[in-house]
Fold this sequence. Notes:
The chain has 123 residues and is mainly alpha-helical. The protein has 5 helices and 3 strands; from the N terminus they run βααββααα. A 3-stranded antiparallel β-sheet has the order 1-3-2. The relative contact order is 0.09. Pfam families: MerR_1. Residues 1-69 form the HTH merR-type domain.
Amino acid sequence: MYTISDVAKLLGITAHTLRYYEKEKIIAPIRNANGERVYDDSNLAWLRFVMRLKQTQMPISQIREYAHLYLEGEHTAQARLNLLEDHRISVQSQIRNLTATEKVLKDKIAAYKDFITKGTGIR
């Protein structure tokens, strides 16, 4: 079992973020006898998944929807699948955009290197 500060350190996020996720009903930590939040390994695995979704720009509202569907049970599997497939399309678009941006940056860096070493113009 982990305290809120343990989880924050382990995941590189703040306790405030964890409280926010709880407020948004994205996670529901257990409370100990003193009323303090306590997290288990399944909470950590779920939070790692949530962080992946956030890193890929999934809105909190969709993460909340996914969490709600999960808690509703197995009969929501198709809805969860649809949500993740839609998000995957978004991630694939982000990858294409990042790849194109990386190419532009690579070309610009090469132009600066040429300018610095050869004195040729920067485009």
